[in-house]
Write a structure and sequence with these properties.
Radius of gyration: 24 Å
Order of helices and strands: EEHHEHHEEHHEEEEEEHEH
Oligomer: single chain
Largest sheet: 5 strands, antiparallel
């Protein structure tokens, strides 16, 4: 792939997508749409579940709703009946199979189909983050994922870092860096968490070095006292700025190979744009294999 980027610009803190914030338990954060006028939130969640099953599986019945939400037969029947009103083309009842099937003109109103969301649920089950019966998926195809090495983040460390973020305080930690043979004590002021694709970091102001930087949670050996912060998260310019990466197929690939790469990355007109915080630019380039000179690798490998 080739790469270019725009100049960074100041932006406000990202809004957390409800879906990614609570993907790993039943029915959490699936919807990206606002609550429909006049519809109870709990009912809307069940409507969303109905559309999820219809879209991905092609059918839905009362028992599905009863098992997923712990509701009565009467309530499940009521939900299906009320959903059908005004959306008769979305599903039809098959008397032979005794189930509702997705209609030919199915158009979801409460659920926004997203392949990435579906894959995320499969990964959550594969990695043991959620049990199969807690997922909205009922039919699981054969699937597997490459294993991810376990990261040694102590829950006590994460708890104290979260506390410091919440209370906006400084935290004394003993940290093992790559540059020093022994762990050293330092004061950090964490304000956010960051994931580089493999490891979790605390984004924090380092009182020792006087700059905002990343601290791997797995390298925090010990947590000490809290104290008043000396800086503010608003001053972390790299965290609040974004870079737009523009990637494209390696120019030395054949036309067929370039088309394959364009399909892999959903490119339009031979390019795709990826927005990333400036603070995470290094990790993004590394994950994309763009942190080295392209000439050092074969075009197909690059």
């Amino acid at each position: 792939m080739t790469l270019g980027w725009d100049s960074p610009s100041d932006v406000s803190i990202y809004k957390v997508d409800a879906q990614s914030g609570a993907m790993y338990h039943a029915g959490s954060g699936m919807s990206r749409r606002s609550n429909k006028k006049g519809v109870n939130w709990n009912v809307e969640r069940r409507y969303e579940f109905i559309e999820f099953r219809l879209y991905w599986q092609g059918n839905i019945n009362r028992s599905d709703l009863m098992e997923a939400f712990g509701i009565s037969t009467q309530q499940a029947s009521k939900d299906l009946t009320s959903y059908i009103e005004g959306r008769k083309s979305n599903l039809v009842y098959d008397k032979r199979l005794r189930t509702y099937l997705r209609g030919k003109n199915f158009k979801p109103r409460y659920f926004q189909p997203d392949a990435a969301e579906y894959f995320a649920q499969l990964q959550a089950v594969e990695h043991g983050l959620v049990a199969e019966d807690q997922s909205w998926i009922s039919f699981f195809p054969g699937f597997a994922a490459t294993p991810i090495p376990a990261r040694g983040v102590a829950p006590e460390v994460l708890r104290e870092v979260l506390s410091a973020i919440r209370e906006k305080t400084a935290l004394q930690v003993t940290y093992q860096s790559m540059s020093r043979p022994e762990p050293t004590a330092r004061w950090i002021e964490p304000h956010a968490l960051a994931f580089d694709g493999f490891r979790w970091h605390a984004r924090a102001f380092c009182q020792n070095d006087g700059v905002f930087k990343d601290f791997l949670l797995s390298r925090i050996v010990e947590v000490g006292d809290q104290a008043d912060a000396t800086s503010s998260a608003e001053n972390d310019a790299d965290w609040h700025s974004e870079i737009t990466l523009e990637i494209g197929p390696h120019p030395e690939l054949s036309d067929t190979q370039r088309r394959a790469i364009e399909m892999d990355y959903g490119m339009v007109d031979g390019k795709a744009e990826i927005v990333v915080r400036k603070a995470l630019l290094f990790y993004a380039l590394k994950r994309l294999g763009l942190d080295t000179d392209p000439a050092a690798r074969r075009p197909r490998d690059q």
